[in-house]
Hints:
alpha/beta; Rossmann fold; Aminopeptidase; 41% helix; 19 strands; 24 helices; 19% strand
Amino acid sequence: MPSEEKLSSYLNKSKLISNSNYAKKIRIAILGGFTLNGLEETMRVKCDEKKIQCTTYVSGYNQYNQEIIDEKSQLYKFSPDITFLIIDCRNVFGELFLNPYSLSAEERKQFVQTKSDEIINLAKTLVKKSNSKLIISNFSIPSYSPIGINETREEFGLHDMVRSLNQNIKIGLRLEPEIFIYDLNSFVSKFGEHNVFNYKQFFYGDIRISLDYIPYLAQELMGYVTAVLGLIKKCIVLDLDNTLWGGIIGEDGFEGIKLSDDPIGRAYAEFQNNLLALNQRGILLAINSKNNFDEAIQVIKEHPNMILKEDNFACVRINWNDKVANMKEISDELNIGLDSMVFVDDDPVNIEYVRSNLPEVMSIQMPADNCHNNASNLKSMTAIFDMLKLTDEDKARNTMYLEQRKRAEFKIQVGNLENFLKQMNISVNIKNADDFTIPRISQLTLKTNQFNLTTRRYQEEDIRKFSQDSKKIVECAQIKDKFGDNGITAAYIVNKDNEQQWTIDTFLLSCRVIGRGVEDGILSHIIEKARKDGISQVRGEYIKTEKNQPAENLFAGFGFKKEGDFWIFDTNNQFKKPKHLVIS
């Protein structure tokens, strides 16, 4: 588990934060049922380190109820993007926390139900009155029981009360798109109840999370910040020798490497199992190894104890080229930014070489002499891959990239681009924004950088409001071809300005489907729709960023004319509709 700086260090650093005008901005509110000294300062420092401009609001001591209920409170005037509500059992149970058995079992059940309803209603009230996402903590199950070893024999005892409270809140809020439950119970279990809760600090200042562990709490909460801003890592690039297995294949041979058959081998197998779990939720895996290709690939294909198989890797670079060159090639092949990649290697020289030449890549050393901690270290950093919601496209991402490799191979075989597109059998299925597609549309606006005309970022609640507005069109497209289903990989938002004009607010494609004419097909769909509605003019913007150059010539290539800041298309004009696409 990575160590953290002391809280005093974060407090000192917070005083030195300049008013940097970072591109990424976030407004964070912290509501607590007890003293959370230092949490706000630590989160501002952690945001600043990630080049996020963070503005914070901290409610008064134990004032969360009043702040949420009062529509004119400072909380709503602050207008946060994210609100963290951190409370514990003492807030909810009051005196019953120490003396729960003053009530009968039935009374305890009713008490928990009442408190659950209150918390659920409070959470729903906050998101209804604001545009904020709410992250509410669950409750730590205490090791203490006033009846000692008889706790497990008691009907609906103290521990059952807390478990039931947690379960009720989970069920009550699970389908609320803007509410997320932070697992404070797991946090306390991970670090130890007697470490996290310090009686001296509690008695002196109602501090229920020790000051020593505030930085660790802040680090976990940062996962929500990076997820909201779309600053997640998408790909883990792995060395092989002494990283995926113990030993060096070129020296120890196929039979000599360590994998699963002894304590060291089991450590590497456990590491691979954790990588597989990340891969199955949509995190790409790639290989960057200095090795003889045939020897290394044989292990991946044939070793009986390999957990990760060839199809788990979206990209493979096993050669004697330098690792920086390989990283650039992997980035190009997968069409993702270097800042979306994590490089893992056992060799400190390779790690330093990549860090110094590609600072945007997160480079992590996992030394061979400490391999038993590799799986634990990987688990501790999974927050960098966290998304607020996993979509079907996320879970199928690895399959989609393997299909993409087949497309690339097929393109080389066919040679001619026009013939390639004709033989691809591409279909574009236009879908309305609904409960199933809204999370994915929002995710695309947050994550897509390259083919994104305006790079306007919209949260789920924004997309949901747009979809209910009769003056807007919010749609997406599912792209399929002969090699498989790319999933929902395109989205657009159109503003119906008036009876004569529409404006394209957002138009984007995932990098996976760029270069197949899909963009022209979707534009033609929008133009046809406008023409049928009697609209004479459709206009759009291209707002240049560091990464969206691939979208720069879309409007000009389609026949739009530049007028000031906008590109204009007269719907009476003829327009191209790609013949190799089927749009439905």
